[in-house]
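Forum: Protein Structure Q&A
Topic: Joint prediction for protein chains with partners

I've read a bunch of threads here and the consensus seems to be that you should model interacting components together rather than docking separate models afterwards. I'd like to see that in practice. Below is the full input, 314 residues plus whatever partners are listed. Could one of the regulars post the assembled result?
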Amino acid sequence: MNTKIETRRVWDLPTRMFHWSLVASFLIAFLTSDSEKLRDVHVLAGYSLAGLITFRLLWGFVGGKYSRFADFLPTPQKLIDYLKSLLVGKPRHYVGHNPAGAVAIFLLLGFGAVAALSGWATYEEVGGHFMEELHETAANGMMALVVIHIVGVIVSSSLHRENLVLAMITGWKSKQGQDSAQADGGRS
Amino acid sequence: MRHLLIIAATLLATSAYADTPLDFLARYEKDAGSPASAERGARFFNMKHGDEWSCASCHTERPTQVGRHAKTDKPIKPLAPSANAERFTDAAKVDKWFRRNCNDTLNRACSAQEKADVIAWLLTLN
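Posted by a regular:
Agreed with the consensus. Here's the joint model:
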């Protein structure tokens, strides 16, 4: 095994800023969700979240290589193969998002968009009680996804022996191995 | 006599969820273990509880009229059942809004007695 560790920039700055800003806006919105006094803060956090998601949807087409949706579009087969490889302790390595992470991203973007839109509708009192229920369900679903996402990051980090949290802060990842997806001759 | 009827109705009810304001009143009185007082409810509703808001800050001192959100200025439908038949008819909503609003005004949950008192008072308003 090569002991020399090379690194490469994987996550571009806008993607990293998006990620941590989304964390902040979602946390603030979630923590202020039960308060009328903090209603302004909650609404502001919601608008921020909506703006961030809009940005990410655009960045998914024009951003850096690893930020583009085309780079990590998950298919059921890719996801199953990846999860299987985790189970047998030989995780397939992806330089960018692995298929499980990719599913989390798309679901989080989707739930986030629904939460923001239904939240706006509730605040503006269009759509009635249904929107209120949808808003709460979407936000709770998002929190559940966040928890799963964090567990996934911890598990993947330990199996791949790389610090994925640090990579999302600095943007750098060690250049270990090949991207499995590319290594097996375009199978996936 | 009215309370006896309410208690009888509650005991006969098969559903765990109340669906009229009187059902809620009976349920909270039962939980509190003592009858509600509309007079106490009126005082509770209109006083501040060590924080900047009272119930009346948003619902007004006369909750048969439209209220106004103390933060966003948005209108709030009347709270008194005589003015708004939807009030206190859905257990999930009642639980949710007591939880949220008691926290905003008292920084704690309301007791069953406090809820019973407030509903008893709201029911006297026409």
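Chain B touches chain A at residues 52-53, 58, 69-72, 74, 99-101, 103-104 (CB under 8 Å).
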